[in-house]
Design goal:
Blueprint: H1 2-18, H2 21-41, E1 49-55, H3 60-71, E2 75-80, H4 84-92, E3 98-102, H5 106-111, E4 119-122, H6 127-155, H7 180-211, H8 213-218, H9 224-252, H10 262-286, H11 290-306, H12 319-325, H13 329-343, H14 351-376
Parallel strand pairs: 1-2, 1-3
Antiparallel strand pairs: 3-4
Helix pairs in contact: 1-9, 2-7, 2-9, 7-9, 7-10, 7-11, 7-13, 9-10, 10-13, 10-14, 13-14
Length: about 375
């Protein structure tokens, strides 16, 4: 009889979900929209930066320099002007983000084995684009300089003079091409799980109270813990479905690798859901209306997103905010999901984060359950 009561309550909750178009929209459409919007928009992979060229030399060496910049994936040469004023106008209007100025004696200086200088002007109003353009321009310039120096030494019969005493060979593990989606898509798993679990759980229970059906459930033989499990179980199952959905789309559409154990990821996701469902349950004991529940959920969601390392690296934050971030459960889950999916690590590598999530889950769910039972009594 115990199982039948609980299963009946879960079935009733699923029927309510199916009959509510707004809830279905939030559950199944909103996560996909968020995945594609943030998967494409929330990235620091800056490519095809528009450049304006002011070539005063028009020599073969100048064309080779322009070709070196054009060959990189970072720049796109859209304009060629005949004055610095025209270049400034294009940058001021936002039509170009950078400008390359080649002096009139550039080719002659190189032919005479003299040091030649070019100017690379950047629009710093957008620091992200400017930083990427600056790094790429500097690297391309160094590579071109090395190639010219090598050719000069070869012409003099001294190619060995270019060999540096120390050579640094860099290696990038796990994400060799530094693809932003490899970082963003796993983070979306945690953000969407938290968004769904907190928002839907809190509003679903408050909706019962608004409609007066919570009193009908109280007078039934259902025990308080059965009511809690029956209300939370459907949203936990839906959250797991969304997790698999994001993984499939992320793997097939965004080519995000899955290097770790999916069973481990699902188990640790369940641990994270205990915390997020507990937060939703706790909100339901505070809010009196669905609007109030949504408002409180948003107040909790926004700081946790910004302080979890989802958008901004924690190491770049002030010490005070770094200390506050330890109170955000999403912080620990993002470390776990990114380490398991991208690095392919096991439980031992994320054990401290698992312990922290366990403590959060026990405390939050315990407090929420006690408050919810008290409201029922």
């Amino acid at each position: 009889m115990l199982n039948s009561r609980l299963l009946s309550l879960i079935r009733k909750e699923f029927i309510q979900i199916v009959r509510d178009p707004r809830t279905l929209l939030i559950m199944f459409v909103m996560p996909i929209i968020m995945l594609f919007l943030l998967g494409y928009a929330a990235t620091n992979d800056v490519r095809n930066i528009s450049i304006v060229v002011f070539d005063q030399d028009h020599s073969t060496a100048a064309r080779e320099l322009i070709s070196a910049y054009r060959a990189a994936d970072y720049f796109h040469f859209d304009f060629e002007v005949d004055s610095v004023a025209a270049m400034k106008t294009l940058i001021d209007r936002g039509q170009a983000r950078a400008g390359l100025i080649i002096p009139p004696d550039y080719g002659r200086q190189l032919a005479a084995h003299e040091a030649a200088q070019v100017a690379f002007v950047l629009d710093g109003s957008d620091p992200t684009v400017a930083a990427t353009a600056l790094s790429a321009a500097t690297l391309i310039g160094q590579m071109k300089s090395t190639a010219v120096l090598w050719a000069t030494l070869e012409a003099r019969g001294q190619p060995g003079a270019l060999n540096p005493p120390v050579e640094v060979r860099t290696q990038v593990w796990y994400n060799p091409d530094l693809v932003g989606s490899y970082f963003m898509i796993p983070g979306l798993i945690g953000m969407i799980l938290q968004f769904l679990a907190v928002l839907l759980t809190s509003t679903a229970i408050v909706r019962e109270r608004e409609r007066g059906t919570i009193e009908q459930l109280i007078i039934t033989p259902i025990r308080p813990w059965e009511l809690i499990v029956g209300k939370l179980a459907p949203y936990a199952l839906i959250a797991f479905f969304e997790l698999l959905e994001i993984l499939i789309i992320g793997t097939l559409w965004f080519n995000v690798p899955v290097n770790g154990d999916l069973g481990l990821l699902l188990a640790l996701s369940g641990l994270f859901l205990v915390t997020t469902l507990g937060i939703g349950l706790l909100i339901s004991t505070i809010a009196k209306t669905q609007f109030e529940a949504m408002l409180i959920a948003m107040v909790i969601q926004l700081p946790s997103i910004f302080l979890s390392g989802f958008f901004f690296p924690l190491a770049a934050m002030p010490p005070f905010l770094q200390a506050v971030s330890y109170l955000v459960p999403l912080r620990y889950f993002l470390i776990i999901v990114r380490a398991v999916l991208i690095k392919g690590v096991g439980l031992d590598a994320v054990l401290s984060e698992v312990i922290a999530l366990t403590i959060f889950g026990v405390v939050v769910m315990g407090v929420a359950s006690l408050r919810f039972r008290k409201r029922l009594d």
